[in-house]
Amino acid sequence: MKNTIILAAITLFAAAIFTSCEKDEPEEKKLIEIGDFTIENYPKVDGATATRALNNMIACKLLGVDYVWSESIGGGERNVLPSYDYWEAWQEYSAFCDFLAERVKTSQTHGAFMNLIDGNADIILVSSKPSPDEKMHANQMGVTLIQTPVALDAFVFIVNEANPVKSLTTEQIRRIYTKQITNWSEVGGRNSEMAVFTRPRNSGSEETLREVVMNGLEPAEFPESAQAQGMGAVFSEIQHSEDGICYTFNNYKEMIAQIPEGIASKIAVDGVIPDKTNIGNRTYPFTTEVYAVIRSDLNRNSMAYKLYEWLQTESAKTVFEECGFPAY
User: 130: exposed, middle or buried (C-beta count within 10 Å: 0-12, 13-18, 19+)?
Assistant: First the structure.
């Protein structure tokens, strides 16, 4: 379907209420800063797996398109997608999905940073700072990145539901990931060897482990969760290992990953449970930030820079919260 038809449909519904759950919200919580975004001028956005749904929700909000949370049959990952009920014709719906696939990508953390540095993305949303490799590439390309926190998340550790250990200290976690602690009995659990899993270097979660948790200590070598399966692989590892431990981001576990009951549970750190309250007030030790990242040479009159500025507004905070991220 031609862009003019899509634009007409978007214009027709731009003032509509976006989701049924928003209807009960106070007036001041509604999105009020839609601006001049269209499918033709929308920036090239990229991001981490953990921000896929958020990027889609933002695009739908700013373009005035109704959306739903998708549910995968038999597991997998949830996502925010345009609501089919919004459209009058399948072709229009399909065309908007094509637009999302073209302009709102999920290249994972490393891919998103590389695309931004190489000029293949205008703005990215990620859950970690650039890795040493990404910083080196930026320096080689003469690119300076501007990274601004816009929402909160948390770096969480997960164990098999059958594991009796439900809390660890920061020091115990560091000792586990440097192989100074290797048996669950050393931290109050069963007399069984720990199965410790990591994520690949340059992944957002692995780099966050090193920066936020390890405090300069070099993690030991451990098996990596299957890289081909992405972030969701950690839950498969934990499901099949009662002695396993790995890490992920809280929002990904709670909002994106569809995990059957009885497989994995988050553990408290220093006695603090990583729930929305403790993340929002930053009492959880490994509270992290979601960053909007642009190049310093981004045109200040561009729609990408307008999106970057909008992400720092009160209106944007309502979107973060709806997507499960405590506002920054």
Answer: buried
The pairs formed by 206-209 with CB atoms below 8 angstroms and a separation of 24 or more are 207/109, 207/128, 207/129, 207/131, 208/127, 208/128, 208/155, 208/249, 208/288, 209/155, 209/177, 209/247
Average pLDDT on 232-246 reads: 84
Predicted structure pTM score: 0.84
Rounded CA gap, 45 and 39, in Å? Answer: 12
How many residues are given for the chain?
328
Extract the tokens encoding 275: 């729930």
Is the model more confident about 35 or about 238?
Answer: 238
Inter-residue contact 247 to 199 (CB < 8 Å): yes
The alpha-helical segments, DSSP class H, found in 130-185 are 132-141, 170-176
Phi, psi of 155 (to 5 degrees): -95, 115
Scan for tokens 């988050």, then name that residue: 266
54 — pLDDT class (breaks 50, 70, 90): very high
CB 48 within 8 A of CB 130: no
Cβ–Cβ under 8 Å, residues 272 and 301 = no
Is the CB of residue 152 less than 8 Å from the CB of residue 290?
Answer: yes
CA–CA distances in Å: residue 48 to residues 80, 123, 304: 15, 12, 18
- For the record, the structure tokens of 22 come out as 């928003």
